[in-house]
Structures are given as structure tokens and as C-alpha cells.
């Protein structure tokens, strides 16, 4: 992510908060503001919390409290691609563990970690709702089913190449 892009996103986020302030919204705008921050930056940064606190006139400790309460919000930078490896029963019995091991090996990260280049974050899910396709993983919004270790390698290879070409 270039500095210009980050700067633009920060400015856009502050404008969003100013708009909420102008509309007289305080605490009722907190959840949407946290969602907005996560969407813009990929996680809830200290800086974003301070901006929200300042513009919506809510103590920063309270903003942190809400951000940490909901598991949806990440407090650490995440990758461009969020991989949700399914550890549910159906996936497990059909080789989900082998798939998870392969993802970890390919990306050289453990569960909950992000690759150094900020391309991939690995998370666990306990049933993605498509057991018929098990073993399954989801990358951002896309579901990949009937996985084999070879398929995982191919998918990650394509995304790595895609990421490089987008830089
Ligand atoms: S157990 Fe994996 S999708 Fe349901």
C-alpha cells in the first residue's frame, strides 16, 4: 500500500467522521465508524480510535472497549487476502487438517498470523456453511471447496502472482 493511498484513506475517514459530527451523531455512530475504519485500513488502529474518540466525543477507552468486545474487529494489521480455513467437523473428517497444514507451510505463518508482505492472514472458522464441499476454505468472500493440497498450492500461487502484479 503506497503512502498516498494510506493518506487518502485517512483523509476520507476523517471526512466521514466530520460528517457524522455535523449531523449531531455521537455514540450512535460508533459501530458504523469502527466498521468504516476496519474496511478502510483492514484493522482498528490506535490512530483510528483516537480520531473516532475526538470526532464523536466518546472516551477512547470506551471506543477500545467496544472494538475489543466484538471479535469481528481486528486490532492488528491484516493481509490483503483473509484466508478462513474451516475446522468444522465435516471438513475435519475430509482432510481439513491436511489443508490447514498446507496453507501454513505455503505461507510460513501460523493461525492468526499475517505474512510479512501483508498479503495473507490466516484465520480459523468452525463451519463455513458449505459442508457438502468439504474440505473448504474461504479467501475474502470467495469459497474454495473440495480442496486438495495441490489445489491449495495452485490457488495461493495465483493470488501471490496477482498480488505482485497489482503492486
Ligand atoms: S464443516 Fe467446513 S463448511 Fe461446514
The number of distinct β-strands equals 4
Sheet with the most strands?
A: 4 strands, mixed
**Strands side by side in the biggest sheet:** 2-1-3-4
Number of domains: 2
Q: What is the average of the pLDDT values?
A: 91
Q: Looking at CATH, which topology of the largest domain would you report?
A: Glutaredoxin
Radius of gyration: 18 Å
List keywords for this structure.
167 residues; alpha+beta; 2 domains; binds FE2/S2 (inorganic) cluster; Glutaredoxin; 7 helices; single chain; 11% strand
Describe the structure.
The protein is of the alpha+beta class. It folds into 2 domains: 3-69; 81-166, Glutaredoxin, CATH 3.40.30.10. 53% of the residues lie in helices and 11% in strands. It is built from 7 helices and 4 strands. The protein has helices at 3-22, 30-41, 46-56, 60-69, 89-93, 96-107, 149-166; strands at residues 81-86, 120-125, 137-139, 142-144. It has a 4-stranded mixed β-sheet with strand order 2-1-3-4, with helices on one face. Helix 2 (30-41) packs antiparallel against helix 3 (46-56) and helix 3 (46-56) crosses helix 4 (60-69). It is elongated, with a radius of gyration of 18 Å. The site of FE2/S2 (inorganic) cluster (FES) has 11 residues, from helix 5.
Brief account:
Helices cover 53% and strands 11% of the residues. The chain is α+β, with helices and mostly antiparallel strands and 167 residues long.
Write the layout of secondary structure elements.
Layout: H1 3-22, H2 30-41, H3 46-56, H4 60-69, E1 81-86, H5 89-93, H6 96-107, E2 120-125, E3 137-139, E4 142-144, H7 149-166
Parallel strand pairs: 1-2
Antiparallel strand pairs: 1-3, 3-4
Helix pairs in contact: 1-2, 1-3, 2-3, 3-4, 6-7
The structure holds FE2/S2 (inorganic) cluster (FES).
Amino acid at each position: 500500500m503506497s503512502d498516498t493511498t494510506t493518506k487518502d484513506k485517512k483523509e476520507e475517514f476523517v471526512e466521514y467522521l466530520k460528517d457524522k459530527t455535523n449531523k449531531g451523531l455521537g455514540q450512535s455512530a460508533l459501530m458504523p465508524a469502527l466498521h468504516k475504519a476496519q474496511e478502510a485500513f483492514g484493522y482498528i488502529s490506535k490512530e483510528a480510535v483516537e480520531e473516532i474518540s475526538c470526532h464523536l466525543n466518546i472516551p477512547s477507552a470506551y471506543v477500545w472497549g467496544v472494538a475489543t468486545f466484538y471479535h469481528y474487529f481486528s486490532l492488528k494489521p491484516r493481509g490483503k487476502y483473509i484466508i478462513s480455513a474451516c475446522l468444522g467437523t465435516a471438513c475435519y473428517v475430509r482432510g481439513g487438517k491436511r489443508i490447514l497444514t498446507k496453507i501454513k507451510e505455503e505461507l510460513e505463518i501460523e493461525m492468526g498470523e499475517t505474512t510479512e508482505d501483508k498479503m495473507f492472514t490466516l484465520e480459523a472458522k468452525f463451519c463455513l456453511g458449505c459442508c457438502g464441499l468439504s474440505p473448504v476454505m474461504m479467501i475474502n468472500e470467495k469459497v474454495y471447496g473440495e480442496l486438495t493440497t495441490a489445489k491449495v498450492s495452485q490457488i495461493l500461487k495465483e493470488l501471490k502472482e496477482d498480488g505482485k502484479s497489482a503492486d
